[in-house]
Amino acid sequence: MSIVLTFEKVIKDKGINEKEIAEKLGAIVDLPRIEAGNVRAIRFTTLDALCVELDCQPGDILFHAANK
User: What gap in Å lies between CA 3 and CA 37, rounded to an integer?
Assistant: First the structure.
């Protein structure tokens, strides 16, 4: 199983930078780890906060890449 984060692409497409998101969300999100894809889990509250700020759906931020 491989879940891939597309957070950087979403913020780039929305024209928002990491600093703006970090300021809005505060300590709720460890953005550097999310940006780097170095997370093993993400809380639903974090995912929800990101979706609210980015005006997107969870599937816009992450997806399942099937192993072949």
Answer: 10
Domain boundaries, the chain: 3-64
Cα separation, 15 vs 45, in Å, equals 23
DSSP 4-52: EE-HHHHHHHHT--HHHHHHHHGGG--HHHHHHT--S---HHHHHHHHH
Asked if the model's pLDDT at residue 29 lies above 70, the reply is no
**Whether pLDDT at 2 is above 90:** no
CATH 1.20.120 fits 3-64, yes or no: no
- Percent share of the chain, pLDDT over 70: 91
